[in-house]
Amino acid sequence: MGGNRPREGGHDIDARLAQRLAALRTERGWSLDELATRSGVSRSTLSRLERGEISPTTSLLNRLCAAYERTMSRLLTEVEGEQAQLVRAGQQPVWNDTESGFVRRSVSPPHAGLRGELVEGTLRPGADISYDGPPVAGLEQHIWVLAGALEVTVQNETYGLETGDCLRFRLWGPTRFRCTSDEPVRYVIAVVLP
User: Fold this and answer.
1) Which of 50-54, 61-65, 159-163 has the highest mean pLDDT?
2) What is the DSSP letter of 21?
């Protein structure tokens, strides 16, 4: 399993992510078996993840976010520490899932009291990522392609997006993102909680 997270100030984000995931499970009073049932992730994988032995892929992290009813940005922000109003380009957290070819930049880290955030995504040519469902039912997303071509499937309807195109939808079911260009596709997702 192969996500690579940024390192901030010499601190290991992977270790903090493992600790936060274990804490979320403990806060809810769930056993590993119960979380496995709720997330569809095996008990052994969850155990290894919480001990920091493996790094989650985008798909795995999305399943856990759905079980905990929080967006990936919110989870990563909880791990990354203090929430700022201004985040300079060089300080924006970048999360790289080398297995899927997905790079995720948190442009505007979420704040507990706010409902919207911006995320920049980059997929290498041929990269294909599927999500079983949203982390929060009814999540609103706006996808704006900055460069390249992206195929997005939302609840069994497929859209081909090219540079400058924007797609807006409310998310209730599965989604799929696939880079259809010969160069990486770069896009912005505006995420708005219901």
Assistant:
1) 159-163
2) H
